[in-house]
Amino acid sequence: MKLLASLTSPFVRKVRIVLAEKKIEYDLEQENPWSSDTKVSQYNPLGKVPALELDDGSTLYDSRVIVDYLDTVTPVSRLMPDTTRQRIMVKRWEALADGVSEAAATIFLERKRSKSQQSPDWIRRQYDKIHAGLKAMSEDLGEKGFCTGESYNLADIATGCTLFYLDFRFPDVSWREPYANLGKLAEKLAKRQSFIDTAPPQS
């Protein structure tokens, strides 16, 4: 397997953590999808990372599709429940976390445009999504040890990647103080080797 990746992407990080938790070997090829000479579109027609090339040459794209596939490759460290109801709740968490990451990434890209081209209303709308998403996460988590109960799964991986992406790109979003339970979860996730090994470069 070969993973096309940007090391700062929360979606790529989610896939890398799943690969680590599942103990699946793969080759990592770093790509900047915004570069003029990027090869990403050869693997994903949408020009986005992550994209996963399988051993038979076929490709998978969109992090949700990739992690679903990876959980079936080996029974090691199953990250998705077997029952439909529980599985749907994990995917709901993943959708919420990914939505917050998408809103944050949208702000990051919008701010790369010249000041005259930026839309303050558009940026504010994305911030509203982030804050609404964090509130929903905190309410859903409650006093549970992990997102869907007392066991670690894909919901926690997706949520952790989102929370740490906010730390990385948006230090102005102070989510730990209003949402202490999310902070407690993040502290727990930060100690896992898979999260340690996939932290984005700080330079």
Provide the fold topology.
Layout: E1 2-5, H1 10-21, E2 27-30, E3 51-53, E4 59-61, H2 63-73, H3 84-110, H4 120-141, H5 154-169, H6 180-190, H7 193-197
Parallel strand pairs: 1-2
Antiparallel strand pairs: 1-3, 3-4
Helix pairs in contact: 1-2, 1-5, 3-4, 3-5, 5-6
Account of the protein in words:
- The protein is 51% helix and 7% strand.
- By secondary structure, the chain is an alpha+beta fold.
- The chain has two domains: 72 residues, 3-Layer(aba) Sandwich (Glutaredoxin); 110 residues, Glutathione S-transferase Yfyf (Class Pi), Chain A, domain 2, CATH 1.20.1050.10.
- The protein has a four-stranded mixed β-sheet with strand order 2-1-3-4, covered by helices on one side.
- Strand 3 and strand 4 form a beta hairpin.
- Helix 1 runs parallel beside helix 2 and helix 5 crosses helix 6.
- The longest helix has 27 residues.
- The radius of gyration is 17 Å and the shape is globular.
Shape: globular
Structural class: alpha+beta
Can you tell me the residue ranges where pLDDT is under 50 for at least 5 consecutive residues?
A: none
Q: Tell me, what is the CATH class of the largest domain?
A: Mainly Alpha
Helix content: 40-55%
The total count of strands amounts to 4
Q: From the alpha carbons, calculate the radius of gyration and give it in angstroms.
A: 17 Å
Sheet with most strands: 4 strands, mixed
Distance between the termini: 28 Å
Mean pLDDT: 97
